[in-house]
Structures are given as C-alpha cells and as structure tokens.
Description:
It contains 10 helices and 25 strands. By secondary structure, the protein is α+β, with helices and mostly antiparallel strands. β2 and β3 (33-40) form a beta hairpin. The model is unreliable at 1-6, 163-173 and 288-419 (pLDDT under 50).
Amino acid sequence: MMDSTIAEPLSADDPQEIGSFTIIGLLGVGGMGEVYLGASDKGYAAVKRVRPRLVSSERFEREVGILYRVPAGVGPRVLASDGTAERPWFATEYVPGLTVDEAVRLRGPLPAEALWLLLAEAATQLSAVHAFGIVHRDVKPGNVILVRDGVKLIDFGIARAADQARLTKSGGSYGTQGFSAPEQQAGDEDVDAPADVYSLGALVLYAASGRTPGVVPDVEPLRAVDADLAAVIGSCLATGPGARPTAGEVVQAARAHLPDPPPSWPSEVMSRIALRRAFAATPVGKLETVPPPDLDADPTPETAPPSAASPRHPRRRLPLLPAAAVIALGAVAAFVLLPPTSRHNGAAHPSGSASVSVEPVPGATRTSSASPSRSASPTAESGRPTPVRPAGTDTAVPSSAPSARSPSGPAATAASPTAATRVTSSSISGINGSDDPAQVKGSEADTSWVGNDAACSAWLDDNGSGELAGVLNTSLNQSCAAELYRSDGIAYTFHASWGAAKTSFLSDVGHTMWICVWNASDRSGEQCSARFGMNGGTPVKK
C-alpha cells in the first residue's frame, strides 16, 4: 500500500521562521498547538509551537526541562526552545522511523520474534529513563518509534521527574485509555516507574493483536502465539504496582528469548524506515518549491505581505512525507497532540501588547570548536538571586521594586524598565569563550569539569552599545542549562544539548548582569559569573 500523504504547504498565516529554524511545511495541528517541519544548516527538525493560553510558562519550562534530561539515545534530542516567545516553542531532531501504531496498520500484528524485540528494546529505553528518575506515563503505540536499530521513546508530555512537583491535578485519569495503569486510571498523582511497565505490557499486547487492550487486558490470545511471552506480559499487567517487574528485569527476560544476532523488524517495516531515512538524508535545497499563497485576496493585518526589511524564505513542498513521519517528527513534543482536525491558520497575535521586543540574535554561524571553554578555575561567585518573576518569563519590573538581591543605590534602579522586556534565545555553533570576540572578559562560568575541560560553560557577550547577552556552550556530549540575570529581577533560563545557544541582547545600563550555568541533569554543581555593570557603553566588573 503506497502512502501518499504530503505535508501541507505553509499558508500566509504560518510562520516562515521560528527561532533559528526556517519553516518549510506544516506537519500537524492539535489541541496544544502546531508542529512544523523546520530546517537549519544541521538538517531537519520538528518545531512545536504551543498556545500560551493552554500551557502556562511554568509548565512549559518544566516539561521542556524534562526533555533535556532524557538520556541520550532514548528519544530525539532537543535542539532549542524558547518559553518567552509570544508562542512558546521547542525543536527536536527528526527521527526516521515508524510508530508501533503505523507498523501494525501497515502489515497487521507483528510476529513473535518482532514482539520479543519490541519488548526488549522498549524496556531498555524505559530502564534508562527510570534510572534518571523520570517516569514517561504515556507509553502507547503512537509514542514508540521503530527505527533501524531499535526504538525511540517520544512525547514526554505528561512525564514527571522524581525531583519535581506532582501534577497540579486531583481526580480524573490521565494517560491514554487502554494503555494507562490502574493507578493512573484512578487519578493517582504519584504514579511511578511501574506504571510505565504496565503500559509496556499493553503496548506489546496491542502489537500482537492490533486491538487496544481493555480495562482488564486479556493475554490468552497471546498465549496461543507464544506462551513465554504471554507470561512476561501478564506480569507487566499485574493490577498492583508492586507485583510488576522492573523495566530492567523485563529487559533480561526478553533478551533471553532473542537469537544472536537479534532479528530486525518485519521487511515491510524496514522498507518504510529506509524510505524515511532517505528523506532525512535529502538536503533541504533539493526539496521542490511550491507557489506562494494566493495574493489576490484582500490582505488582513495577519496575512499582509512582509516588509522589504524582513525577507521571507521560499515555500517548499515535502516529497511524499508519510503520516507516521509526521508523528516521528512531532510526537516527541512535550505536550500531547490531539488528532489533527481542521486546518489551523496560525495564531492570532494579540493587539496592544505592552511588551518591548529585544532584537533577536543574528543567525551568523560562529567558528565551530570541539573543545570546551576553559578557565583557570570556576568563578568564585556562585550565589543565585531570587527573581521577581519565575525564570524564563517576560518580566516587567517597576523602578520602585528592585530584586531583593540587587545592589543598593541609584545605579541599580535608575533605568528599570517601565514595560516588559522580552528575552529570547537561538542556537549557534559551539565556540570557546576565548574565541568569542564579543565575550565580556572575566564573565565566564564553567561547571561539570572533566580534568581540565568544562562540559558546560557560559559567559556574557557585549555588543558595544550598553547591551549584554548570555552565551551557553556545551561539549563532552553534555546537555547544559544557563540562567541570565539582571539586577532588577529579570531571569531567563535557556538550554543547549549540542553546540551553543545565545540570548538576545538587552540593556544593562543602570543595572548589573550575570549568568549561571549547570549540567541539565544536576544543578548541584551550578556556577555563576561575576556581575557586570555599564560604565558608559563598557561593561565593568562590580
């Protein structure tokens, strides 16, 4: 059966760019927002833009933070995010594969050897997630992707990290009917790793039959296919969480039934995966262009042509992008996408906004370097302020209300903004602090040291006009986080899982500014730079 689904071309209301990504197609629309196909000089990405009315900035930061902590290889990498944009968004890498749901629809129930392989690979990924203190809580056929050499877990939308607060929810179930554990169905807020093991059992039961398990799953049909597999799955589906095996124990049981070398996915599935890998290898410039939208219609404020000062990228059409590739691109989103319904033509921009937008970071590519930033020692100052507003949010600070940790005196408050200041961030190529010509000397903070190398580094950049930006650089394959602070209470958190990220510039006149950095999986080693204030247009250490 040929798959003829094509990603929709962009309409006049769709964005042409989100962050540093050029948007080249619409992949899907759901209850929480849209998923777009983006492209950069590093390849394709799924860019999820959420509706702020439905997702608070605190929830966005919490859930994207979990995505950054997912162990390498378990799911798609998070490439960039911005929780302070008018429409918060994040981008993940493209994963060429099929979801379990589409694999079953493609060829019917999977054979026994593929079921054992699915059980082993999915349990391995869950075991890695659980070791990091993360519970997925929505393992289902649409959230497990079959790839050439295993599986990937996607969509950690209702995941919870062990060190974070419970869902602000009481009563009512969450997860997906048929795949959620009894404790989830009962609305228990404190579900743990055993719930994922239950969902894993339901997932394999679905793959073996093509039917969603009932409230009381029936393993008898599976027993007729493979009695040993039915025994393992039956233990995963135990009603009580304590009666279920751990994900690690499931891995051991499953791998004992796999031949050496292990089997691959059925031929029909492998052929479709090969097609999607070929798509992923297609350079962006090779995609066919499509005509722009009909410009004869009367333009509205939202659809008016862009000004000459803001050139738009040409529209491109995706060649035969199957529906599951859409899921592979977008379902990793930290918020669950509902099945697409009618076409959504972008977001309405609120009028009369009091926000003052800071100029975004230019998209110029910096000199790439594989080595990390270095300094003789971590910076001495490691104190972190209590911001006036939650980190990662637009902050309007009246001049009469400086941060409790702000320096005293007129210089700290004279230029406090009367309108909100918007901080944004963009991904850039990795760069050593010593190689950054815009670096404010002495502003670097480093953490996660391995010998003389720091895996995570951050510093301030100066544009020469009284404005500073924050830079976060990663190396040693680490995911890092940083927070840019200004003494009037503005605090902006941003992340990078490869290369580097840089915030927009914002004024430091009348304030002081500093930056803190930590490994995304362990904030205990956080380090902060010295504070810098402006002497005219020159930053000076305070």
